[in-house]
């Protein structure tokens, strides 16, 4: 990839506070806020499945038994891990879409094999 | 020589030959290749390497044993050591990859200041070194059980081989060797697990089939004086399970030897997919571990329950020689089992042997036992190599180059790095032979400190432009001091009295509170002091976008290119 260091890049004196970006950089704010929104949603799921189901609600969920597993116990030792893997995959896929939508995807990226 | 020893030699010898061949083939001469493998590692391979790097002797050898005795609360390790990857993938990896340098202290240094960088480099060296000692020790245990060497000999052999290929190959050699090591360790973990699952339930998928035996396991556990396997909060109070899990997660996301692996990918996109593949490969082992714990525990308990002391299964005698399994004095029949040497139970089994002994306990053939030994070594060696690299790069790149000799050439820095690595190997041989009694506590220490120091400062550095050097320095120092103080207060590590836990918070869980303290202090101090320079804000702005914007519309393109 082409390495872009801050020095090489001259971007006409954009002020640091995000609230006052010049209008032609609006796509940056838009890209970043959509990235943040995706992140918050995925992290909420991350928290609910692991800390919610696997720790805080484990005892009531253990009343339900599926295939020999008390449900809370299953979330704590199996389910949460599956969800973590899926969350990262979803993030990578959604960011691919977001990047190409905004034209910031890297030109010579390798095929990510999946 | 017994069958088991022969097969162990075959597997260990064969796998070592492969690792050394790979290290030789991919030896490097320039700095970039040494530290970040020239940023040319394919995503899947990098994921497998991260997985091998991450899964240490603790994951392979100890974890299933810990879960077997912790039961449901073993989830602190299962969730704690996987959930951190979600944080890493969403909050850290892609951004640090975009910024693209060699070390974690380097990011902290560029984003904040040289002082913060030095603090970070020293912290990275201490955290990594603690880990290396544990790996050398793990290697030593495997050699002493299966090859009849004493632990000293085992540690030296393991350390020399690890040192040799880490010093020769740098990151490029390590990455490809780690791919081979991941393959060895996962095969060694899954084959016996699948065999045992098939044998006991007829379903060869351990993740699914261990549900079948949970009722039986709960019943026999009660009979032998142990807690029920599926009971939540039998080993730790709820608040502590929550805090320890969180602390391990954010500690994982803040550990320098894990973060640095995402610098080796080709692109930002590659860093995201690397995190996915890494967790995918880790999950293969982590979802199997509780099944291995449950099956082995049931097998073990059924094998010894009510059996007279002179008719115990042969694995008891094999392992008694290492001192990790003991039958109580004057015991005639086994009526209680424990993992705690002070419990006074009839049979005491150390957590650390459960995985290594599980094929023997289940009566699987000798080649499988040998394969598991090779897997345990692969796990210990791959992690140790990754850690040695962090020690070397932090020393040569962040301390030597920055603080001692700013005009040092590439070759000099490479030499300094290799000398630091060599020294670390020597000291860790010594520490592996004479382990401080508190190795386990020190590892908890490392996680807590990583959680309370690196994680908040890195995340705020990426997501909050206003965060400045004064804030980061103050936050890191208060976070670390707070966490270390509570650990010293509650652990008898430094010859101090161990005090009772405040509000049921264990020293393993305090890192969570330390991280919160760090966040609050960093934000408060940053707000009260001057904002960072414009170049810094610019730098933060730039790591947020994977690349320059392509020409889409005329107006936007002229400004962005």
UniProtKB/TrEMBL annotation, chain A:
Pfam families: DUF4212 (PF13937). The keyword Transmembrane helix applies. The keyword Transmembrane applies. InterPro entries: Na_symporter_ssu. This is DUF4212 domain-containing protein. The chain crosses the membrane at residues 38-58, 64-92. Residues 1-26 are annotated as: Disordered. Keywords: Membrane, Transmembrane, Transmembrane helix. Residues 28-105 form the Sodium symporter small subunit domain. Residues 1-12 have a biased composition (Basic and acidic residues).
UniProtKB/TrEMBL annotation, chain B:
PANTHER family: NA(+):SOLUTE SYMPORTER (SSF FAMILY), SODIUM/PROLINE SYMPORTER-RELATED. This is Cation acetate symporter. It comes from Micromonospora radicis. It is a multi-pass membrane protein. The chain crosses the membrane at residues 6-24, 76-96, 116-134, 146-167, 179-197, 241-263, 275-295, 368-395, 415-433, 439-463, 470-489, 509-526. GO terms for molecular function: transmembrane transporter activity. GO terms for cellular component: plasma membrane. InterPro entries: Na/Glc_symporter_sf (IPR038377), Na/solute_symporter (IPR001734), Na/solute_symporter_CS (IPR018212), Na/solute_symporter_VC_2705 (IPR019899), Sodium:Solute_Symporter (IPR050277). It holds the Pfam family SSF. Keywords: Cell membrane, Membrane, Transmembrane, Transmembrane helix, Transport. Belongs to the sodium:solute symporter (SSF) (TC 2.A.21) family. It is found in: Membrane. GO terms for biological process: carboxylic acid transport.
